[in-house]
Amino acid sequence: MPDVPTLAEAGVPGADYVFWIGAFGPARMRPAVTERIHAEVQRAMAVPDVKAKIANLGADPINSSVAEFDSFVKREIKSNAEIFVSAGIKME
Fold first, then answer.
1. Residue 17 falls within a domain, yes or no?
2. Do 78 and 27 contact (CB within 8 A), yes or no?
3. CA geometry: angle at 68 spanning 73 and 66, to 5°?
4. How confident is the model at residue 37 (pLDDT cuts 50, 70, 90)?
5. How far is CA 75 from the centre of its chain?
6. Which site in 13, 18, 24, 77 is 20 to 30 Å from 69, CA atoms measured?
7. Is residue 11 a contact partner of residue 62, using CB atoms and an 8 Å limit?
8. Considering the domain boundaries, does residue 21 fall inside one?
9. Within-domain flag for 47
10. What is the DSSP letter of 4?
11. Sequence-separated (6 or more) residues with CB below 8 Å from residue 88
12. Alpha-carbon separation of residue 42 from 39, 55, 62, 70, 79 (angstroms)
């Protein structure tokens, strides 16, 4: 996204935030379904053409397990909640 300013250019000097994308399913999805989807995504991510297209977008895929991603998301929610509270950001 060449025309999007960095956080520093947007007036937030010293900001350090890594934007990420993940896949989510329903809260009560059966673990076997979750694992199957995870396995298929991992298989797709191993295809050289897919890897190249993602790299061309400037992304750096991380192949984490379902449990690792769950832990990561929980940490991100906690961290972002702290940022929002300290910045006085309110939901509208």
1. no
2. no
3. 95
4. very high
5. 12
6. 13
7. no
8. no
9. yes
10. S
11. none
12. 5, 16, 10, 16, 27
Q: How far apart are CA 22 and CA 17, in angstroms?
A: 16
> What's the number of domains the chain is made of?
1
Residues listed for the chain: 92
b/e per residue 16-54 (b: at least 16 CB within 10 A): eeeeeeeeeeeeeeeeeeeeeebeeeeeeeeeeeeeeee
pTM: 0.74
Q: Kindly report, residue by residue over 13-33, the tens digit of the pLDDT.
A: 887 778 899 999 999 999 999
For 92, which DSSP code? -
- Residue type, position 73, single letter: V
At 31, list the tokens: 């673990």
Token digits for 75?
């940490």
Question: Average pLDDT, whole number, for the chain?
Answer: 90
Is 90 a domain residue? no
